[in-house]
Each structure stands twice: as C-alpha cells, then as structure tokens.
Amino acid sequence: MTDELQLAPHELDILSKVADEELLVFLSTGEEDMWSGYLIDDRMFDLNIFGDDFCTEGHVACVIYECDPCKDEHGMDNWTTNTDKCYHLWERKIELLAL
Questions:
Q1: How far apart are CA 47 and CA 7, in angstroms?
Q2: Could you tell me which residues come within 8 angstroms of residue 41 by beta carbon, excluding any fewer than 6 positions away?
Q3: Are 35 and 47 in contact (CB under 8 A)?
C-alpha cells in the first residue's frame, strides 16, 4: 500500500490550482487518464487525473506523485514517477463538473 506523499503548504496550494486548470483540459479532451508534470522549487510532481475506468463510476479523481531524477536513454537528465507515495487530492462527481 502506498503511503501519503508529504507536501509543503505552498506545494499543495500550487498543485491544487494547477489540478483545477488541468481538470478543464481533461474534461474537454475526453481522455480516460491524463498525466502532467510540474516543477516546484527543486521537487518535480506528476498530476494524474483519471475517470471511470480507474475510479468510482461517474467520478473523476486527481492523485499527485513525486518524481525522482533519472537519466533517459540518451543519458540526459529526466524524471521518473515514483509511485511509492501519493497524495489523493480529490475525487469529484462528473455531472457536477459539466462544462
């Protein structure tokens, strides 16, 4: 079982605002699962917004993961999602979010 990711208050504030903006993109594209990366200070985060196939039917949810630094196949600096810990930001009913 994953542990809860620890976020500083300013990180949670920024990621909450970003997630609300990304939710509009998610709903307008009709995707089932959307990932977005955000660098805050020296920490990289992935926001995962997902719908019915991955959470309660009729809902959409957002989970935050921290990313670890890594090298890509060309030896360049990159990030990889660490799923050992996560922060469940929200789960919302889709009908309440109609555009």
A1: 13
A2: 11
A3: yes
